[in-house]
Design goal:
The chain is an alpha+beta fold. The chain contains 22 helices and 13 strands. Among the domains are: 155 residues, no CATH class; 121 residues, no CATH class; 129 residues. The strands form two sheets. Strands 1, 4, 5, 6, 7, 8, 9, 10, 11, 12 and 13 form an eleven-stranded mixed sheet that branches. 41% of the residues are buried.
Length: 809
């Protein structure tokens, strides 16, 4: 075997390190020592979490296939490296798009898929073990994509999908184990593959057990007489105990494997709690409204394009900040210029904010109606939910995409799915499409729909047909923030408790926080980004911040709970109009993170650009001699650009301060009791931290402006000094020229006189003396004239007085 080829034992050890200790360095070193270190950097670039484009992945992989052509041993090492790195990325990043693209390209870009094809790639007859190892490793890469499908089903809390997808992997691993057993003289790598296949098979078999057990557990939370409810609680407890024992047996078979042991322990812990809770009372939401909120700010890149178009509002300011977004968006929609889902938006109405809000506040809302959204569950029940869709535009800048629907006869499983629905990881259990017959496009999750709608809306507000890349980047950042800050608002109108005999009793709103009732942890804990197992909420710890924040604003039995990404308003014994007041303020609070983060990002970018321009201006001021008109004009242009940038920055910060003051104003709400409830919501949402970050950026902008003001003064002084120097030189030139001209002219005059009269010595003396006196007199006059005060050319100033917004040019 060539010296540059690692042994199967070395490859097995490197894979063990990668899968047991999440350390891919050993397998990177092996690939580097084979003489392909130059290719390693290109390969590593595929696994940075930035989800490279498919064409880039394809090009890199094709190059690597070329490097190992004719060397099945190196092909095995390359495929093993890719398998380890793909698994690493799956562990590290929730966004699976980049990993799935890499898997797809690995399987289609010149990699052999069978032992026969592997043998055909070599120049000689390689060993059967190497070819089988490569084929199995490629199959494992494909199985990662199947494992991701299981993961999506777990995140969606879909037992049917988990059981189906995990069952497929179990069957595939059973076949793979038989293939591995047939390999002769495989050595350490064969042993590793056999152990890995058994571990993978057992884990997915345990997930199948969990799906079956969870389905039985949830029967305990259904009402007597509901479809599928027939077992007594004691029978369910016995079945859960049986499933738990199967998972525990699997754990005992793999005691030393950290990754497998931890995952199996999580499954067992879930089943253990389900077995203990099966005889408890269960919460049951008989009637509720669920609202999904994707908050966003309209970035200045969009505002500029709305307001800088001639004739829009007559303004010539360099930024759209300070303008009213409601009138601009209404105008754009009435012009049918904004298109979403390929059709123009025309249904635009003023939203009645209600009398909770103060009469003196400037809080106004515009609703942009969108086609309703239909969500169809892919499980056996095929349940359908219709959501109304609205883009809600606020005069204070806290805009949102809002989707609202009904939640009826929902057990804890359906409540869990409802609360998780806006998340980026939800989706394997449902299909999302428009509830219109003329639109066939579907999305795999609600977050994808939200991304498309907000992107198309912001692009539709753009008046400039030539969109540069920076604009697209700003829009995508805004959309990404909206999805990351998505919020679920659940307003419970009727609540029941399912008792051990299956009968239901009506419950007051505050019972949703009763830890003794199954399902309370759903309402007092935020929704986790990635689920470890099905219905993992049974293991949620109550959030320390999830206390009743309704306080003296509500009635006894009502409750409002706020977590990081959910708000639950439970007031079944209160009139709807009062519950609407509770939820309206909670929804307003849920929209604020988007605008606070948006403002912070905008000001941060302005500061970055202003600081870069300030550094450039300082350097030019120090280095440029300003001895020529071109040098002075170049520096003056830089200073003017800098002053414009700072004027824009002051305008932005002034507008942000005004809107922030409006949010914090006591007059925003009608009275102090509503304001007190609002402030408790504000604190529970952690918005004070957002506000501190924003104010620190505003203060940084002010400090930077003060630094720039010093540079402006230095430029004035430098310009005045250059102007003074220029005038002195000019005066000297003029003085000398005039003196010489005067002397020449006087001498010429005397020469003419001498031609007319006979010269005498005393006449010559008088002529010379008079020429000298005349020259001195001319010099004196020119000096006096040069010293007269002159108004220097005033340069156009964009400076903004403290606290002002600056002139609009």
């Amino acid at each position: 075997m060539p010296t540059d080829t690692p042994s199967p034992a070395a490859v097995a050890d490197a894979l063990t390190e990668a899968f047991t200790h999440h350390n891919v360095r050993p397998i990177q070193d092996l690939l580097s020592r084979t003489g392909h270190a130059h290719a390693l950097a290109d390969l590593d670039a595929l696994f940075t979490g930035r989800a490279p484009d498919s064409e880039i992945v394809r090009a890199v992989l094709r190059a690597q296939v070329g490097h190992v052509a004719g060397r099945p041993d190196l092909l095995l090492l390359l495929v093993s490296y890719l398998y380890a790195r793909i698994n690493e990325m799956w562990d590290l990043y929730a966004d699976q798009g980049g990993v799935l693209r890499t898997i797809t390209e690995v399987l289609r870009t010149g990699f052999p898929e069978s032992p026969e094809q592997v043998r055909g790639a070599g120049s000689g007859p390689p060993s059967t073990a190497i070819t089988e190892h490569t084929s199995i490793m490629l199959e494992n890469i494909w199985l990662v994509s199947q494992g991701m499908a299981v993961s999506r089903a777990v995140n969606s809390s879909c037992m049917d999908e988990v059981e189906k997808q995990a069952g497929r992997i179990v069957a595939a691993m059973d076949d793979q184990i038989c293939r591995i057993r047939s390999i002769l003289d495989g050595g350490e790598l064969t042993d590793w593959l056999s152990e890995h296949a058994n571990e993978t098979r057992d884990y997915y078999q345990a997930l199948v057990f969990c799906a079956q057990a969870t389905r039985q557990f949830l029967l305990a939370g259904r009402r007597a007489g509901d479809q599928g409810v027939h077992e007594r609680r004691e029978v369910l407890a016995e079945e859960l105990a049986g499933f738990l024992e199967k998972v525990e047996q699997t754990r005992r078979r793999h005691p030393a494997k950290a990754w497998l042991s931890g995952d199996l322990a999580a499954l067992a812990a879930n089943l253990r709690i389900m077995r203990e809770w099966v005889n408890r009372d269960f919460l049951f939401v008989e009637d509720a409204t669920v609202v999904y909120i994707y908050p966003f700010a309209i970035p200045s890149a969009v505002l500029d394009r709305m307001w800088l178009t001639p004739g829009r509002d007559g303004s010539s300011a360099s930024t759209g900040y300070g303008a009213d977004p409601i009138s601009a968006i209404r105008s754009r929609c009435e012009e049918r210029a904004v298109r979403v889902h390929g059709r123009p938006i025309s249904a635009v109405v003023d939203h009645a904010v209600g009398d909770d809000w103060g009469a003196e506040s400037d809080y106004r809302v515009l609703d942009v109606s969108l086609p309703p959204v239909l969500i169809t569950m892919t499980d056996a029940a095929k349940t359908q939910t219709t959501l109304t869709a609205t883009l809600r535009i606020s005069s204070l800048g806290n805009h949102s995409l809002r989707l609202e629907g009904a939640l009826v006869d929902a057990d804890v499983h359906l409540v869990n799915q409802a609360l998780r629905r806006p998340s980026v990881v939800m989706g394997a259990s449902e299909k999302v499409r428009l509830a219109t017959s003329d639109h066939t496009e579907a999305w795999s999750r609600l977050s994808e729909y939200a991304q498309e709608v907000i992107t198309e809306f912001l692009n539709g507000l753009n008046d400039d047909p030539s969109v540069e890349q920076s604009f697209d980047d700003v829009v995508q950042r805004t959309v990404g923030t909206a999805v990351a800050l998505s919020h679920s608002l659940l307003v419970v109108h009727s609540l029941q408790v399912i008792q051990a005999d299956g009968t239901a009793r009506h419950a007051c709103g505050s019972e949703i926080s009763d830890a003794a009732v199954v399902g309370s942890s759903l309402f007092v804990s935020p929704v986790g980004r990635d689920a470890v197992t099905l219905e993992e909420w049974v293991r949620y710890r109550p959030s320390p911040d999830a206390t009743d924040i309704l306080g003296d604003y509500g009635y006894d039995g009502d409750i409002v709970l706020r977590t990081a990404n959910t708000t639950v308003v439970s007031a079944p014994e209160t009139p709807d109009w009062m519950a609407l007041s509770y939820s309206a303020q909670a929804e307003f609070i849920a929209t604020l993170p988007g605008v606070l983060l948006g403002w912070t990002a905008e000001i941060t970018e302005y500061i970055r650009q202003a600081r870069d321009q300030l550094d450039t201006a300082r350097r030019l001021l120090q280095e440029a001699p300003m001895s020529t008109v071109q040098e002075r004009n170049a520096l003056q242009h830089t200073i003017l650009s800098l002053e414009q940038r700072y004027a824009d920055l002051r305008l932005v910060t002034s507008d942000v301060r005004a809107k922030l003051n409006g949010i914090n104003s006591p007059t925003l709400l009608r009275d102090l009791i509503r304001r007190s409830y609002f402030d408790r919501l504000y604190e529970a949402a952690g918005l004070a931290a957002y506000e501190r970050s924003l104010l620190s950026r505003i203060q940084e902008a002010e400090d930077l402006y003060q630094a720039a003001s010093g540079l402006f003064r230095a430029f004035d002084d430098r310009l005045a000094a250059a102007e003074s120097h220029r005038r002195r030189r000019l005066n000297t030139i003029l003085t000398t020229s005039a003196t010489l001209l005067a002397i020449a002219s006087t001498a010429e005059l005397y020469g003419l006189l001498n031609d007319l009269i006979e010269p005498r010595p005393w006449v010559l003396a008088v002529e010379v003396t008079s020429i000298g006196v005349f020259a001195l007199a001319m010099v004196g006059v020119l000096v006096l004239v040069g010293r007269q005060p002159r108004a220097r050319n005033a340069r156009r100033s964009w400076r903004v007085p403290s606290g002002g917004a600056g002139p609009a040019a």
